[in-house]
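Each record in this resource describes a single protein on a pair of labelled lines. With that in mind, the following record should read easily:

===
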Amino acid sequence: MHRLAIAAVAVLTCVCAHAQRIEVSIPASKPLNGHLVLVFSKNTESEPRDQLEENYLSSQGFGVDVVNQDPAKPIVVDAATVGYPRKTLNDLDAGDYTVQAVFNVYEEFHLENGKTLWLPPDKGEGQHWNHKPGNPYDAPVKVHFDPKSKTVLKLTLDKVIPPIEGTDEDPAVMAAKDPGAKWLKYERFRSEKLSKFWGRDVYLGAWVLLPDGFDEHPDAHYPLVVYQDHYHAGFGPLPWVTTPPDPKAKGGPRRGSAGYRFYQDWTSGRLPRVIMIYVQNANPYYDDSYVVDSANVGPYGSAINEELIPFIEKKYRGLGQGWARATFGGSTGGWEALATQVFYPDMYNGTWAACPDPVDFHGYQNIDLYNDANAFVRKGDFGEIPIAADRKPDGSIIANTDAEFRFEYVLGTHGRSTEQWNIWQAVFSPQGADGYPAQVIDPLTGEIDKQVVEYWHEHYDLNAYMQKNWATLGPKLEGKLHLAVGDGDTYFLNNAVHDLQKSLEATRNPHSDAQFQYGPGEPHCYTGGPAEYTMQENNANWPQRVLPQMVDHMLRTAPEGADVKSWRY
């Protein structure tokens, strides 16, 4: 990182104010709709807008909803404004700070069901409010702040984040410039299903990695492997590096080495010849959709599995059959990989899910949605203890749930933070009466809505879903389930995986043969692998480890008459 050059100095004007306040002006020609995020920082190594995070090391943020506001009037941050980590402006210490604000612009969405919502659209950046094209912001300014002062701090957001389209961050530009374009393609696909749901054109991005010899074997048809992950502008599983790493590069050659090794293995015939795809599916609630059909996020499961994948298989000569598809991913991608296999059991022939997001809501991170009365504290007869949210591998707690929920509330109300807890709520919840996701946990009190939990249980608790449907689902999952997680997972995700394993070990007719691997003391995101290698070494060659396993299983289970030869040259 480079040291921040302070671009401006705030003008402090003494006025008669009833409380400490900050006024933020945004030059505009029409009413303002969106959410202001104001950040106080002590760290000058980066801009304040890049320093909000969910643990105790975060800078200080404040959030304000703005609805049809006259741009001639300032947006006010005062003692009543909710903050994080400190709860209000009055809780800040007097002193010198660097301050910056970003206005996350909302757009009006007219949903198919008649609801009208104000939401932050993805603008190609993967739902990062602090770098979203079109969002007004200001240069960082130095201020002396005193919560007891009657002085008003005035800021003007006179800059606008530029568009990504046509820049090197644009996936289409990346694909065109990539030296490995012979193998790596990019598709921008309009989804009819999603466009209908959202009332506007919705596109999916898809990176398609073609096998070695694709052009030289025009009659070959290939299995398909779907990699699940968060939004990346480029290809997701590993850096696609077509040149040897520079040992003198900043940070060393390690990551470049992994990417170049993957490129070499892929293009030399050392790996099974398959088509691998990575889908970009950022949406108004998050950088990823969780690839299921959802009342709030929309029919992403159907759009990806019934529209996009058939399109790719037809264009790039996929075999187009369930025995010849597999999926893998970690964290969000781990949940997606498992959910995809479970909800589409005939369409996929294996999943390798690492450090998956909660697969059983008894372990909603460290919250038991079914038995906890509150998501922030557990109480005894005479005492109480906060519920931890994030930890280091040694067990040290770095964030509690109450702070994390307030962090997201500062970034957006009504489930619009575009962060982790809110996307789970958006994906798993029914739509509320106001059109926004029904609230499962009150972000300021921790109260759990058990009626919403029941909806989650019926639709998206993967363990409960498998138990309920095991008689018909179990035979379709034989040989297909592979899970790995660190037992020191940063977000306690190992708890739910253990619950799932106990349930599957108790199954009969058939008895589940799901495979589980745990990394003692390993954090997020452990992907398994040989114990003689470090977690980082195993993660660096994860595709090389799982692809042969996938194809071996495909060949063992291919139906009679299936094409098992054209792609094995």
